[in-house]
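User: Please look over both lines:
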Amino acid sequence: MKKNIFLLLTTLIIFVSCQSSKNILRYDPSIYPDPVDTHDRAIKMQRKTVFRFPSGVQFDNKFDGARMNDVRAVDDSTYLIYITPENEPINYSPYYAFRLWTEADKDIAVQLTYPSRYHHRYIPKLSQDGKTWAPIDSSHYKVAADTGSALLKLHLSAGKVLYVAAQELKTSKMTEQWVHEKEKHPLVHTQTIGKSKLGRPLWFMNIGTESDKEKEVIVVITRQHPPEVSGHLAFDAFIDEMLKDNRRNRDFFKRYQLWVVPMINPDGVDLGHWRHNAGGIDLNRDWAYFRQPETRQVANFILERAKKQKANIILGLDFHSTQTDVYYTFPDSLQRKIPYFNHYWTQGIDESLPPYPSRFEPYAVNSPISKAWFLLQFGAESITFEIGDETDRGFIEQKGRSAAREMAKLLIMRDTSCK
């Protein structure tokens, strides 16, 4: 069975490897050896409220991106915060975000507690305004021996709000503001391409010169999984580097254009979900059946735009986060439009940066994820760009910018005789 699947995939990929996207093909989801049921599954909404205690300490989750299901006082200076997922089964990425304040200066202890089968993952980040963040002092933070909880020591200043979150807040409204800021650039053209399950806009950016028809396309997406902010930060830096006015970028945009979707799962982000959208589904497992509105609208838009512009999609990049930096690619045995790009690109990125542990992991086509869809639908090279949860934020910016530079250099020098 596996041999037959491999032969089918190889046949399909060879067929499209030198074809323009005008020959749009529809693939049977049954070719995936590991199908995923992406019908809606119920989620449990957290109660948005303010938790007030006689000590004067108050907690709340009444902001986009919050996740705090309950708070209980052990005594006047110790509090238990309960964090539960939107539904189950779900991967082990317990996300949390809340605010607290007090009427007078006070030192308190907060214990983050999860259901028994889950483990603490993220180092707490602190902020006074929800915009500027720093990791908690390591001396004020301890993970339990069984990793099922974490204890935080916090100082509250009278009348000042303190944000505590697993990762920095990057909400849908913040992303919308980011999109509007980029609109000022002469190469950027933006639009909405649909709405999420709960009605939030799905934004799209075209980056390129005015005559974009029949140019080759690189599709860049991110934020399928709500807590994966470190990948989003690398994505931001990647786009910023591509918007610089220099000879490299001018030469690049003579031949190519970027299609950018900066947040595919705005509902999950704003609801503080661990992993899923408002339909209770991991969107990065819905790139075969397209039962969720977000993946369906994004994929249909890309297909229709490619057909209308006679655009050849050659590369798909999907920015994510995990425990460590890693590039997920495909084996060299699977043919695609820009052979060996993955090797030269990732090697160029790593060589341009200070020594840092990152991995290069080829995977077979075995799951209906965005990376597989770009390969099977367009014969495009496709790479999942993963950044570690706690990778230094300054280094993330360097890496995102380096990824943009190395991509542009390789594609400028690319032989396009196979078109």
The domain at 53-165 is CATH 2.60.40.3120 (Immunoglobulin-like). The radius of gyration is 22 Å.
